[in-house]
Amino acid sequence: MEKIIKAAVDRGASDLHIKAGDVFRARIDGKLVPLTKQALTPEQTRSIAMKFIPNDEDRARIDKIQDYDCSWGAQGIGRFRVNILRQRSSFMIVMRVIPFEVPTFDKLSLPPVLKGIAEAERGMILVTGVTGSGKSSTMAAMINHINATKHKHIVTLENPLEFLHRDIQCSITQREIGVDTESFRMGLRAALRQDPDVILIGEMRDSETIDTAMKAAETGHLLVSTVHTPDAQSTVMRILAMFPPEEQDVVRVRLAESLHAVVSQRLLPKKDGHGRAVACEVMIVTPTIKELMLDRDRVSEIRDYIAEGREQYGMQTFDQHLTDLVQSGEVEFEVALAASTKPSDFELKMRTFRRRSTTNRKAVVDPPIAEPMTGAISLGTAGSAVTGAQPVVPGAPEKTPESSPKIQGLSTGFDF
């Protein structure tokens, strides 16, 4: 089993699937591909699950387990986030590969503006996207940047622990849900009494956790967390919808005051077939964005203001970043079109760009031919004009084309 897992990691797998009645499968470059030919039996899958469960107490009740999260690591292979589940009354295991090395913004090819976002002193930073879009890696890069550039106390609440941070300039306290603290909610409440500067929550799943997170941001802490939403605009609406209708007006004001930025992600297969490219939407809560959040009838305008704030604030929409990825040749147009927020607008913009590019190329290859000069041209002398013939001055020697004066190496054909 460990040889198969190592082979998958060596091939760049992001996830592994182990299921009774099926072969080992791995997600490589976004595609789920088989690694073996022989299907696993229910007994084999159960034995593998037993190997991943870290403590004797949970192993003793394995036959009662329906969903179970843990982490597992092996020397020379790697670390993994493990989910053990039941399906068709037998076990299945899904493993997410966690690199030993904590990623950086540059290695993840994330927009440079994220460094400035991570350096904020207070407020909420939300990293959003579907499962498997690289949210954990982006949050780890933020913590790594703070760790390398600031002197702070960072508290993380994760289920399970993923990237293991070492103390550089910061002191980092990493707590695992179910092992070091009871729940995200209880761990977050306790974190407020642990002199934190930065708090990372693996996931905000309910209104109570979000309420406590906003309190942390309101009291001067920087809070980083994730929400399963597709983009920045829907993140605002989803958070508000998690609260009862009678509380939403108050929550709207609190969210507008405490939210600092939203970073939404999508992973796309690269054009060369190797690896995946990240497409990012970045929203920074400027005074204008704050006004839109406070007005329930204008929340739908947020995306347009993100697009307009690209040059001044470094914000960008998904479609803007997808355009960059297509123009740089990193992602196929069809892939980007399928991932775009407004496919019809995105397609129109790309067609316009292609037409302009084609026109510019033709202009360079086939320069326009100069038209022969016709009509009178004023030479700046009163009463003097020419119509393409040499001016005749009585008594002056006749000029030949070779003796005509030149401007920057080109014959003017005129005697000035």
Throw out a few tags for this protein.
416 residues; alpha/beta; 7-stranded mixed sheet; 6-stranded antiparallel sheet; 16 helices; 36% helix; 24% strand; globular; disordered C terminus
Give an overview of the whole structure.
The protein is of the alpha/beta class. The protein has 16 helices and 17 strands. It has a seven-stranded mixed beta sheet with strand order 9-8-10-11-7-12-13, sandwiched between helices. Helix 7 packs parallel to helix 8 and helix 14 runs antiparallel to helix 15 (333-339). The chain is globular.
Total number of helices: 16
Helix content: 25-40%
Number of strands: 17
> Which word captures the global form?
globular
| Structural classification | alpha/beta
Element layout with pairings:
Elements: H1 2-10, E1 13-19, E2 25-28, E3 31-34, H2 42-52, H3 56-60, E4 67-74, E5 78-87, E6 90-98, H4 105-108, H5 113-118, E7 123-128, H6 135-149, E8 153-158, E9 171-176, H7 184-191, E10 198-201, H8 207-218, E11 222-227, H9 232-241, H10 248-258, E12 259-269, E13 276-284, H11 287-294, H12 302-308, H13 310-313, H14 318-327, H15 333-339, H16 343-365, E14 377-378, E15 385-386, E16 406-407, E17 410-411
Parallel strand pairs: 7-11, 7-12, 8-9, 8-10, 10-11
Antiparallel strand pairs: 1-2, 1-6, 2-3, 4-5, 5-6, 12-13, 14-15, 16-17
